[in-house]
Amino acid sequence: MTFLSRIASSSSSALMTKQGLLTALVIALFSQVASGRTLETSSNGSTTFVWTIQDTYAGQTFFDTFDFYVGPDPTNGLVNYTDRNTAFGQNLVYFSDNNTVIMKGDNTTTLPDGQNRNSVRISSQKQYNTGLFILDLDRAPWGCGVWPAWWTLGGGQWPYTGEIDIFEGVHDNEHNQVTWHTGPNCTLTPTDQFTGTIVENNGQLNLNCDGTAQGNAGCGITEWSRASYGPTFDAQGGGVFAMKWDEDGIAVWSFYRAAVPQDIQTGQPSPSTWGQPVAMLLPTSCDPITNFVNHSIIFDITFCGDWAGNSYATSGCPGTCPDRLKDPANFVNAIWEINWMKVYKKQVLNGVITGSSSERTQATSWIWLSSLVALCWSFFSWR
Length: 383
Description:
By secondary structure, the protein is of the alpha+beta class. The chain is built from 8 helices and 21 strands. The two termini are 31 Å apart. It comes from Cerrena zonata. Pfam families: GH16_XgeA. Residues 41-316 form the GH16 domain.
């Protein structure tokens, strides 16, 4: 429950009397003190804030604010993206008995030569400019010829309003790849501020994020963890992916199920306590505000295509990708199973706090206590 919600709830029971209002505010403030919530601080120390919930996508209402894309696959996959009615009718999307959200490729139809396989691609109706995006899922798609992605896409002409591939991979790879596609103004900076490995192109680090160059490859970072993609990710119960996008850059974290931070589980995320991200695009080499504009959130599963198709021969997968496509048994693991996705926004607080995360946690209590003192002073001065 939010700070103001606590006020409203408590105040209603006290009939909004002067004494009741004070009581409600005191309860609300002490609840914030007790929570020990960590304050976040911008890199230059100019802003102190917390991440507060903006949107939650989960359960039976998950698809209510998503559009189903039905056009041709821009990445040349051997796929038919289905509309909402077809997707529900063919059980390509549904809700499990545990109320998880299921999206999958068709795994029941045997195809003749030259026919594409049905699947889904959905895009959020709401567009975002910065935020903290967190996805909790039990399973993610994988398999020979399978190419899934959880990503955001700018509302203008590609790639000039940006693309952020938060979760992406092909076949039965074991490592997630984070990629940015932009106009000609962005480069990836080699740094020890992230733990992943920069993707190479012809033996050289691919630092150019320009989506119009180098075959639209963008600039990518591969995660080090084998639990970030594929069969290992599913086998250990899935996990959480998070992308923080603000004036300090764009950073991505992933956590296997047993390592999901408590602050994420309680809905009070504090990225400053999560350790180094697996991937990061620094603002010094790419302005995260002007190069990424009006982004929708997208989930999709395609087959073969520019990446999974072109890499198939060297992937260790049997036969050819078009032949693989025919047998539905090959796609039983091409499935998203999502617990929830949440988008958080910054709530800026007065005052600036610097120091370690533990110091900022302690300072949180002092901010709320000082607010309580100010409240009491105002109350006794109220005539």
